[in-house]
Amino acid sequence: MVRLITHNLLACHAKGCTSNNFPLRFENARVELREAEFNGDFLQGFLPKIEWNALVDTAKQLGDTSLPPEQPEMTDDEFLKNLHHVLMEIHVEEGVMICPNCSRNYPISNGIPNMLLADYEIA
Amino acid sequence: MAPEVTRVTINEPAQAYEDKHVHEVYDQIAPHFSSTRYKPWPIIGQFLCSIPTGWVGLDSGTGNGKYLSLPADRPGDIWTIGLDRSRNLLQHARCAGSDQPIREVVLGDILGSNWRAGVFDYAISIATIHHLVTPERRRAAVQRLLETVSPNHGRILIYVWAMEQDPLSKRRLPESDVGSAGLDVAVPWVLTGTEQVFNRYYHMFAKGELVGLVLEAAATLGLEIGSPSEGTTKSGRGVEIVQDGWERSNYYVELRCWRTQV
After folding, report:
1. Does the distance separating the beta carbons of B115 and A43 come in below 8 Å?
2. Taking CA atoms, which of A81, B39, B66, B240 is between 20 and 30 Å from B128?
3. What kind of fold does domain A2-121 have according to CATH?
4. Chain A residues lying within 8 Å of B114, measured CB to CB
């Protein structure tokens, strides 16, 4: 389960790949939706840490267009509900994540992303 | 009788040795290991209770993920993401406790940097860094934790196995060998049912060694040690040792990062 809460924090770390290495792009993503407990206080605290453009674009890749292109200054219930759904309820079970800079592939299997590098890729 | 731990000498490349004597072992003993690891240590529970709502953290070397659901009385107020090298342990961590919601876990190395720099508000690394075979790798692991949390307010808690053992511990140490450099040992794990024995590598920390690693890692990153000086007139970054001590055969250290801007 790579959810977008985790995806928004991940970056490529292959040797020499230090800029434009985020966000990883999903390919062949198999998605499952699972309801999760809503926690508005958590979302309010997490908001400033989100890379907003990355989240909006990635949600679109996965077929969700509910988020506004700009992070709103005032948050209302509807916005928080949409944000909750995007961050917490979309699970990518299988697929790959691809670095926008060096095209390194990170596979996702059984909901677990593999971020391990081979010896020669370690910086 | 409790199994003895034995002293080991490492004469292979570090990564190859850790693969064989740590990662492969955990993958094989995962279900049994997981069934024995359920009770959180008190100071770790207190640390996670003190984390403010809305914070996101990393559990570096999460194992079976027993800390991912804490604090139990404020579910969903904070999110801890688990990282480990054992896929089999992560399968347990993913749904720690059968009726628990699914957790976020990532297969990765504690020496990797697969996160946006400084993105986490807090990080814990419990009983993990002692599986690295050289002082340089152990220092690098501390460095990664310092890099992965916010330079403004990041909080860190690290636990490692101590040479100073609890009198109630079942472990028996090799005699002598008490020095300041710690001790490299193999610890047997007897797999129930098969009586198969797996030896895991541990570096048992000497008193003061963990704090020493923190000081070295901070120096490498150019961080000041201590709290920000009052009324400072220059910008700076630092890390404060909030507490360090010994609990149940382990040493721990709690850190807080800070940045002053003028």
Report:
1. no
2. B240
3. N-terminal domain of TfIIb (2.20.25)
4. 10-13, 115
